[in-house]
User: Which sequence fits this backbone?
């Protein structure tokens, strides 16, 4: 199918393009990007007033399959992704079974091959069953297609074991994604430790439980020489520590999730389980620090940490509710609303955070609009406002932290591999 | 003033005027318990369900007595004997109680915030009878009612709250209520029992019991909840008594010789309170229990009168 996108503002930081262009797509690939193309196509998309960017690359996603298909499946999660403009996903290994062996990877690859609507990349566990006790066979997992390792949801407490994993990852040239949490310090907590947790009578999760583990992981990485990527940065101290590590030329990248630069802990009131995630929403000054870290390039990536849970698992007492929120269908709009609209960053920076940077970290050929590349493109209306409600979600789960919020920016078309895989009429 | 709230979830959410209105209403109900026939028809034909997920004698019985003196029908549900053991959620339990055409649910639950969850899913009134570490509004109201009876005012009183502040819903509700009404509140405990940033609630913190008592008009002594000690950080019973126990000698060092001693019960004699203090004339512990009935009658009455309730 030949597709011609006309008169669209094309933003492609990888090629430092930001201007009105036409894009011609044929045989799944981008064939030409230029001004005023007059080529015959099966489908012409009028792009005036719209923005075309590379398909989003979300490197922190839980799709729950295999094991918890009632929360989400590869099929439902990737369909949700396309609605949000996400064409490439890195799935986390905390499924059941965990992705910790060649067998489980082959099982997952098979599900992906048969049911996925977007590109899905696989991360493998660092330790068997993510239990923190013995290492997985990292080289074999890499041969099976794993492109990063992580015990996401848990940190590897044992530093000796983690160092070993880092050395192997360094040799295999894959990044180690660090979930930074000292569970001895955070144990039992359900929200940020602060006056608000005192007021609500809830057990707190201290900021120290995050940033002391960021510090430790940086030290271990420095010795082992591998690349580390700090997942879901939530507090100001973590941003500072990562900034210093970058100054020391340590091979470190960092990610945050949309809720950490848009919401603070006071949104938990009164006991809204859709504001319960790990790490927790922090304080106002943390939200400012995360925004500043994004602006300064300390934080390289915005990823959703899409964590679907059923309504039954959220409609319970706050202490008993599961941690996590969905994000695939809102991350682009939240980022536009809270980062671009107020002028904290420009469009090119936003696009880098959502596409090019995660692609570089993962070593995948995504996140750019080069001629000859597979055509993964999102066309969005930057000004369209919409209100988040349960009915708008394609995801099997509805546990969004942004329910009821008005957001700016909406996806009109998602093109994946040269095909229009999502279209929203307007 | 007209009462408009269908629920009582916590004192944090009430204005000074609303607090005073509850206290005044309680004052008018107190006399009922002194009559030969201790009953008024205010809640006749209404059904009150005591839904208790934690063991409680005092609070549950107090609510039951209060409801009965208002002529309401009272149902007691204890978690051990209910569908909860079979895995029913709080929301489903609440909806079932509503389907039985009850009018008021009095909820005691070990999870902070559970009354909010319940009130979001039922239309009938919800009264918080203690949720986790969060609030225990009727306990604080009866404490404040007792103080007002003794001193004729709350404004300007010095009240010290001593004990496990960190895990205490009684402390939080007292702090909200007392500070809104103009009292000066001091909390006193070993450092590990003072919750993070509690000073932002407008209280003074001390770790010295003699200092907490010196300027106090009243001391509210909390029960040491040793069962909550998950990290083995609590002091030993005897050490706690030595450092923080309210004794005759300590009371005698206080400036106000009529300093009154309160305790929400159940008391641990010889741990937070010397036996002789519990039984001395300065102790108002049993008056608190009596006042609890009037306060709970007022709360039951007011929520049932709100326009928003059925």
Assistant:
């Amino acid at each position: 199918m030949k597709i011609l996108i006309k008169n669209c503002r094309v933003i492609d930081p990888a090629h430092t393009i930001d201007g009105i262009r036409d894009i011609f797509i044929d045989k799944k690939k981008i064939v030409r990007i230029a001004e005023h193309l007059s080529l015959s196509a099966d489908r012409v998309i009028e792009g005036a007033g719209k923005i075309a960017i590379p398909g989003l690359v979300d490197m922190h996603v839980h799709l729950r399959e295999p094991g918890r298909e009632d929360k989400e499946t590869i099929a439902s999660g990737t369909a949700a992704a396309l609605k949000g403009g996400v064409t490439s996903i890195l799935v986390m290994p905390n499924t059941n079974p965990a992705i910790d062996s060649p067998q489980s990877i082959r099982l997952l690859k098979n599900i992906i091959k048969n049911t996925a609507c977007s590109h899905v990349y696989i991360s493998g566990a660092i330790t068997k069953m993510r239990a923190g006790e013995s290492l997985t066979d990292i080289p074999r997992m890499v041969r099976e297609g794993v492109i990063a390792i992580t015990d996401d949801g848990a940190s590897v407490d044992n530093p000796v074991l983690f160092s070993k994993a880092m050395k192997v990852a360094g040799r295999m040239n894959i990044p180690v994604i660090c979930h930074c949490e000292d569970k001895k310090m955070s144990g039992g907590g359900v929200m940020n430790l602060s006056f608000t947790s005192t007021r609500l009578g809830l057990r707190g999760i201290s900021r120290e439980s995050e940033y002391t583990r960021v510090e430790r992981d940086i030290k271990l990485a420095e010795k082992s020489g591998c690349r580390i990527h700090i997942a879901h940065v939530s507090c100001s101290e973590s941003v500072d520590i990562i900034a210093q590590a970058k100054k020391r030329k340590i091979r470190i990248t960092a990610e945050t999730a949309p809720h950490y630069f848009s919401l603070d802990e006071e949104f938990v009131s009164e006991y809204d389980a859709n504001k319960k995630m790990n790490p927790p929403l922090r304080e106002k000054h943390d939200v400012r620090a995360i925004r500043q870290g994004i602006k300064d390039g300390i934080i390289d990536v915005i990823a959703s940490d899409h964590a679907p849970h059923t309504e039954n698992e959220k409609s319970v007492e706050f202490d008993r509710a599961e941690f996590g929120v969905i994000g695939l269908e809102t991350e682009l709009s939240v980022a536009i609303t809270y980062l671009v609209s107020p002028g904290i960053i420009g469009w090119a920076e936003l696009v880098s955070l959502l596409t090019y940077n995660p692609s570089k970290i993962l070593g995948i050929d995504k996140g750019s609009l080069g001629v000859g590349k597979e055509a993964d493109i999102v066309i969005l209306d930057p000004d369209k406002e919409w209100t988040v409600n349960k009915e708008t979600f394609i995801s099997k789960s509805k546990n969004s932290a942004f329910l009821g919020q008005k957001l700016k920016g909406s996806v009109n078309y998602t093109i994946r591999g040269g095909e229009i895989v999502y279209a929203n009429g307007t | 003033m007209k009462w408009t709230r269908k629920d009582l979830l916590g004192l944090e959410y009430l204005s000074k005027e609303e607090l005073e209105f509850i206290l005044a209403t309680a004052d008018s109900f107190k006399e009922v318990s002194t009559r030969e026939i201790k009953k008024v028809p205010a809640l006749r034909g209404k059904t009150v369900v005591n839904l208790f997920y934690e063991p409680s004698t005092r609070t549950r019985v107090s609510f039951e007595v209060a409801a009965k003196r208002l002529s309401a029908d009272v149902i007691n549900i204890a978690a051990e004997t209910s569908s909860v053991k079979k895995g029913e959620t709080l929301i489903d339990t609440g909806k079932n109680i509503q389907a039985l055409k009850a009018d008021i649910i009095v909820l005691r639950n070990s999870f902070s915030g559970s009354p909010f969850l319940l009130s979001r899913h039922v239309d009938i009134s919800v009264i918080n009878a203690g949720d986790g570490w969060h609030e225990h509004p009727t306990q604080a109201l009866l404490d404040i009612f007792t103080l007002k009876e003794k001193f004729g005012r709350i404004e300007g009183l010095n009240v010290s709250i001593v004990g496990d502040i960190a895990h205490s819903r009684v402390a939080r509700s007292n702090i909200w209520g007392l500070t809104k009404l103009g009292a000066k509140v001091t909390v006193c405990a070993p450092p590990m029992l003072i919750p993070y940033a509690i000073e932002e609630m407008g209280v003074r913190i001390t770790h010295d019991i003699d200092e907490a008592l010196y300027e106090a008009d009243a001391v509210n002594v909390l029960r040491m909840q040793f069962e909550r000690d998950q990290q083995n950080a609590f002091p030993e019973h005897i050490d706690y008594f030595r450092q923080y126990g309210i004794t005759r000698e300590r009371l005698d060092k206080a400036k106000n010789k009529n300093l009154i001693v309160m305790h929400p019960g159940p008391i641990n004699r010889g741990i937070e309170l010397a036996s002789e203090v519990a039984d001395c004339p300065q102790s108002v512990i049993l008056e608190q229990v009596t006042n609890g009935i009037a306060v709970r009658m007022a709360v039951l009455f007011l929520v049932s009168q709100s326009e928003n309730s059925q």
